[in-house]
Amino acid sequence: MGTDINILPIQEWFHTEKEPLVIAGPCSAESREQMLTTARGIKAISKVHIFRAGVWKPRTRPGEFDGVGEEGLSWLRDVKEETGLMVATEVAEPRHVELAQKYGVDVLWIGARTVVNPFSVQAIADALQGMDIPVMVKNPLNPDLKLWIGAIERVYASGINRIIAIHRGFHYFEKSPFRNAPMWEIPIELKRIAPDLPIIVDPSHICGRRDLLQSISQKALDLEMDGLVIESHYKPEIAVTDAAQQIKPEDLKQLLEALIIRDRKGDIDFQHKLEELRTEIDKLDGELLQILAKRMEIIDEIGEYKKDNDITILQMKRWAGIMEDRLSIGTHLGLDADNLKHLLELIHKESITRQTQIFRNKK
Ligand code: PEP
Ligand code: MN
After folding, report:
1. What ligand is nearest to the CA atom of residue 57?
2. Comparing C-alpha atoms, which of 320, 355, 356 is closest to residue 341?
3. In the chain, what are the helix, strand and coil shares in percent, each to the nearest 5?
4. Residue 303: which CATH number?
5. In this predicted model, what pLDDT tens digit does every residue of 157-175 receive, in sequence order?
6. 137 is in which domain, residue-wise?
7. H or E segment to which residue 246 belongs
8. pLDDT (tens digit per residue) in 90-129
9. Residue whose CA is closest, atom 3 of ligand 1?
10. 185, 246, 312, 362: most buried by Cβ count inside 10 Å?
């Protein structure tokens, strides 16, 4: 990515000024009435640009509602005709791409369950050959940035250069209030690798519940994400899929109006002050690295000493004591216990690796 991939920046093909790109609509197309009623509510919100609905739904078990199929595309076409909104749907197979094109769908997306499978993504990419349509690529279910990038590259290689990445959170084994853990470091790393690639956030699938949507949407904007996809249904309580996370168009309107759109750059005084603080951080990081290197030098010395005296590397009791002591000091200093534990474990891992090396070298 980066130099060899030349994705069009969103400002060059979608006029949203400073505003985030907002996509909203039901998780699934259920009926013509549900689609049009919801779309009328959404049309009344000037901040929404694109109407979404899934007509093919990948479900965990057979027998569950798996979408209305082609008929739903005709309802999307009706929505487009009546409201003038652009419309988007999920494609998971080449046939979906062809049908979506036939019904005039404006934007396609590839879902999280499809992105995990490079064969499926490639089949879709092949079907996209020669088409001029924006394609959104959701992150895969598992936190694997390379897999996400790979899917984007496949779509790009088929000639599509209006691509948007959608961050919808990741399956994670640790308990959290979210349906899918946000792991912001992953989309942030994607932004670093591909600065021109627009990334929008899907708070609905991250949160899995309505009450968290506002704060995750705000966080997305504060992290310079380029837009939001939010599921909206005229009557969420009767939604066939994802009922707990959908919101009524009027609630969506409130959510969007309450969002604070902060400046990405700020004025010149702000820039100067920021520069000053960043210089200080650079200096501190330099000192931190020096200290870390010094620590490792002493670790090496201890390693030699252990080796010469035939003492084992891992001294469990000592390590447990260090952990307890440093955690206590660190948390008193206001550092987060979990993150600090993680950092100490990494430092310990590096120390063990170095001492193992010394033992191996000095047979
Ligand atoms: C969806 O957007 O409705 C959907 C199925 O999302 P995901 O692929 O992110 O689970
Ligand atoms: Mn959904």
Report:
1. 1
2. 320
3. 55, 10, 35
4. 1.20.59.10
5. 999 999 999 999 999 887 7
6. 10-258
7. none
8. 999 999 999 999 999 999 999 999 999 999 999 999 999 9
9. 27
10. 246
